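quick one
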Amino acid sequence: MLKKSKGLLNFFIMLLFFFCLILFLYILYDFYQEIPREPINIEVNVPKSYENSTKNGIQFQPNMKFNHKNITYYIDPNCDENKKKRMKDAFRILSSESGVIRFDEVFSDYADIEVSCSNNYESDGEKDFFIAGEGGAKEIIKSGNYHVITKGVILLFDYPYRLAKCEYPNVELHELSHVLGFDHSNKKDSLMNPLLNSCSQRLDYEIIKEIRRLYSEEDLPDITFEDIKLVKSGRYLNMNLTIKNKGVIDVDSFNLSILDDENRVLEEKEIKNLKFGGGIILNIEFLRLKNPNTKKIMFFLDKENKIKELQKNNNFLEVRLI
Ligand SMILES: [Zn+2]
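structure w/ zinc ion:
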């Protein structure tokens, strides 16, 4: 009886011993995993997202546009009634011909387009063309595929004596088209011909078509990864992430999430106010892998799909660690 219970006791002692040994080895292994290793650079291929900047040939820069369809203008009160009327006619004509943009008069110079007048006229004798007006996009922000116009100016001179005064607001429409990013044309019947030699010159259909194309798109942000530098040291990750907004409007807030291959969240960060054309560089240090043998990690922008964007397929990136 005594012999039997002694044997059982030995058995339990042995069992306890093995249990302690396994626990010890596990702690040792875990401790070993925590030891920082030689840092390894992990190559990350960020797809060069869509920079499709083929020039359409009729604009100064590819995809030049305001980031809204209701464009405001302000006419300097010093402009005489005739100039005011002709300018307003030009706004009305472009709005109705395009069918996609609207121009609203406002009475402050915070307007998108500022119109001012000068009693002088300037002519460039050398090049033999009139400067009856000057117009252009004054401030442009390049963002992804777009050149977003944030301010336009038009200056109307008194017509030079040689210039036929047209009933139709040729000069005003010409300058307004410059503001919207359209370049000169050498077609004789084009209103964008630098020489106003006939009152029957009209806006090219290509310009109307291009305005329709640009402004029928919804104005949205587009957050995406620009660059990721990743260093793995044992089970720890150090990284520099460049995130950009390549859309045409700002984005208030979104989340960056980093997950492992078992969909466990390693990091979740809120990024606030990313302006269009702008970016942010995030530095994340000592990000601990839940499993030291994790083969890949995944980066998501707006994983919860809360914001509407130009493109959603550039919000995800998978990186192999081994
Ligand atoms: Zn011009």
